[in-house]
Amino acid sequence: MVARAYTVAFEGVDARQVEVQCAVTPGIPAFSLVGLPDKAVSEARDRVRTALSSMAIALPSKRITINLSPADLPKEGSHFDLPIALALLAALDIIPADAVEGTCSLGELSLDGSLVPVIGALPAAMAAAEEDRTLLCPKASGAEAAWVGAAQVIGAASLADVVRHYTGQSPLAPAEPGEVNADTSGRDLLDVKGQERAKRALEIAAAGRHHLMMVGTPGSGKSMLAARLPGILPPLTAPEALETSMIHSLAGLLDEGGINRTRPFREPHHTASMAAIVGGGRRASPGEISLAHNGVLFMDEFPEFPRTVLETLRQPIETGEVIVARANAHVKYPCRFMLVAAANPCKCGYLSDPARACSRVPQCGSDYMGRISGPLMDRFDLRIEVPPVAFTDLDLPPSGDSSAEVAARVAKARTLQNTRFAERAGMYLNSDAEGEALEDIATPDTEGRELINKMAERFGLTARGYHRVLRVARTIADLDGAETVRRPHVAEAVSYRLTVPTET
């Protein structure tokens, strides 16, 4: 008799079903594991054997063979422990085989039989729902996996609890979805003295998910402004939270007993490698751009990043997805993020500061900002100069609106966009609009069209730049509550497009 249990193997954010077959046959006592397992999976037999011994379950003096099917699919990770144990217990008639076959399971076993949380519980729950199976996972992963309402999720603290559940001695209650709320109230836009134009640019960028470049001298407040972005962004919707959390689950970032509805804010250091930013490594893991999906990717000291890393951002910015290709893997990850970049105007940082002298003006700024290619710079919808703030201004009272007030306007603008793109596949916000959809929603009035055409001719806007101005103008009109794009909206959008501090 062959007993069967089911689990998953991960390929990007997708979870492929794996059938765990167990046969106990006469022969020389052995415990063999086949089916292209990696080192962590091969070690599962020792963990399973010891965990069963801790429950006073002795393995028979027979040959035990575990096959992981399909055999040509690489199996990686320690989450195969629990399904292997279930298949073995079913083969020994300790738990009902039919109940095990109706379950998809994953979890790592400790030597005392307790279950350790593993990555990927959320994608596994999605796969279990597609196969109409119950998901069995460690108790600590249950709150995360229970977000998939189409699948029943059972969380167990130990293998003994699993046995008692299947034998009817002590059934386990289904897990409840958990939610973690991050506190972003500590950072308010009112903390930033001055910089009204930069605050306005942040609001526009947040409302339409537009990419933003800030250039200014050291200490002008670029990082401080970017750190306040999470406080003005609306929380993730349920579908967005599920989509984002599937990536975070694979990266092992959901360790607080539930899903976080706060939008991701990732800020990698400028020494990060291409695999860390874009994704890769031995397992083709998601990178920072995918971990920032539906959120913000803040790259401080932007020109200091390696040129190869910066250039790889061009395609993900346009398509909203990245393909990590390796010799043994070809994985696609979503990455619709808002890129916020900050840079000094030159190597020394004080190119535009009249109070300090730079001996290499203007060559210093040209060389430094020249590390950012023209095609990449063209992908920024908003470019602003952040001027230095005098220390005497720090004693002034707060100015402008609070983060709560700005967040309310951003939420209202995003609600308009969600309604506008409800029936357009692949479009969510103004930054996604293209082709006929862009013409329908962002064609300006006669005066606005004359202005943008004049600016395009005078400053040599590319076709991409022209369309990005229209998208920003549409977002400004949404914040203004206007149904059509008018000349003032176009004028403001063009002003952000043409502000290139490196050309001063």
Characterization of the model:
- The chain is an alpha/beta fold and 504 residues long.
- Helix content is 37%, strand content 18%.
- The protein has 21 helices and 20 strands.
- Strands 13-16-19-11-20 form a five-stranded parallel beta sheet. A four-stranded mixed beta sheet has the order 1-2-4-3.
- The radius of gyration is 27 Å and the shape is elongated.
- The relative contact order is 0.10.
- The mean pLDDT is 90.
List its salient traits.
504 residues, alpha/beta, five-stranded parallel sheet, four-stranded mixed sheet, 21 helices
Short characterization:
The protein has 21 helices and 20 strands. It is α/β, with parallel strands linked by helices and 504 residues long.
Tell me the fraction of residues in β-strands, as a range. Answer: 15-25%
Cα-atom Rg, whole angstroms?
A: 27 Å
Low-confidence blocks of residues: none
Largest sheet: 5 strands, parallel
Shape: elongated
Q: Quote the average pLDDT.
A: 90
How many beta-strand segments?
A: 20
Instruction: Classify the secondary structure makeup into a structural class.
Output: alpha/beta
Strand order across the largest sheet: 13-16-19-11-20
Cα(first) to Cα(last) distance is: 79 Å
Helix % is 25-40%
Query: How large is the count of helical segments?
Result: 21
